[in-house]
Task: inverse folding
């Protein structure tokens, strides 16, 4: 059974193939390529871009999407093996997932990280349960470990802007927030930009490390594509001469003395015009959205000509069109 629940399901060669095909289909869109197909979309968490872009892909491709919001008109789902189900989770994924497979041709799942234990989140229990129990292909709409469609849309935006991703210096910088956020987006940018052969520089304050298993995987992907992955706690150093400034908030690697307030402890890391000026003169600014204006990123950056955040969001549609077509075959 073919799934797309993590970037490893594609690998570096697959990343280059998806980017090439997505660019080709932007010029010459396919017609009714998903006719007769039904996508079941299971949301454990809210969304704007992901929900709208997946539904748009199905509608424009001649197919149909069914949206199920877990806990909102749909039974709360249990995923723990051996759980005594005497609380509010009324149905186990062991039944729910194969039942859905009797109705739909593809399943899409969104389930966020717990943000309480990075090792548990890295194991990605809910997404793995869906992949294990499904009788139809499963695609990730973000999970505890990765947001692979977002990573592909990010790198597609870079590829369209600069033509070549191999050897391109790109910077992923931590940004402050009002609450600890999951690491799925920074993980996926690291993995996908590495697989595309970029020279990825990651900057974050001490204590906000990404998961070591994801970092190792990104380094392997980068090695295979001629890229590299480096880390620093000096944001200025990471931004110097970079062609891409990608800002993202994420939570600490482990609970520290500052607790959840740690994410507010470094306000000078907010991306303002000063930071953008350190990057190359033709640098672009990316963020997966939603973004907290003047907390993570200043208005002057989001409203500048360097910002490509709307194109980046559009590219979610283009990579997902490719991926759903591939999974539906
Ligand atoms: N970037 C992204 O996944 O946006 P949503 O959470 O709105 O879907």
Result:
């Amino acid at each position: 059974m073919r799934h797309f629940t993590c970037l490893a399901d594609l690998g570096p060669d697959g990343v280059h193939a998806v980017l090439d095909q997505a660019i080709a289909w932007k010029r010459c869109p396919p017609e009714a390529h998903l006719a007769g197909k039904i996508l079941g979309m299971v949301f454990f968490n809210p969304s704007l871009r992901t929900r709208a872009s997946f539904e748009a892909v199905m509608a424009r491709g001649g197919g149909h999407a069914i949206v199920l919001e877990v806990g909102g008109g749909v039974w709360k789902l249990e995923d723990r093996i051996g759980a005594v189900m005497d609380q509010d989770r009324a149905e186990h994924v062991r039944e729910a997932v194969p039942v859905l497979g009797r109705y739909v041709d593809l399943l899409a799942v969104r389930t966020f990280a717990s943000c309480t234990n990075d090792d548990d989140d890295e194991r990605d229990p809910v997404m793995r349960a869906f992949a294990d129990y499904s009788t139809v292909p499963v695609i990730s709409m973000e999970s505890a470990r990765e947001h692979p469609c977002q990573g592909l849309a990010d790198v597609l935006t870079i590829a369209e802007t600069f033509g070549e991703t191999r050897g391109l210096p790109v910077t992923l910088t931590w940004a402050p927030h009002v609450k600890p956020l999951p690491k799925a987006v920074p993980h996926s940018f690291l993995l996908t930009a590495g697989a595309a052969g970029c020279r990825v520089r990651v900057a974050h304050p001490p204590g906000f490390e990404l998961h070591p298993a994801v970092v190792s995987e990104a380094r392997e992907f980068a090695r295979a594509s001629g890229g590299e992955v480096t880390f620093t706690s000096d944001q200025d150093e990471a931004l110097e001469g970079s062609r891409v400034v990608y800002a993202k908030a994420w939570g600490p690697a482990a609970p520290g003395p500052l607790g959840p307030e740690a994410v507010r402890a470094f306000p000078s890391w907010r991306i303002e015009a000063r930071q953008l000026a350190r990057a190359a003169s033709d640098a672009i600014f990316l963020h997966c959205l939603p973004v907290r204006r003047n907390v993570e990123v200043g208005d002057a950056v989001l409203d500048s000509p360097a910002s490509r955040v709307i194109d980046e969001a559009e590219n979610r549609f283009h990579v997902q069109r490719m991926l759903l077509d591939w999974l539906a075959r």
About this structure: The first strand starts at residue 38 and ends at 43.
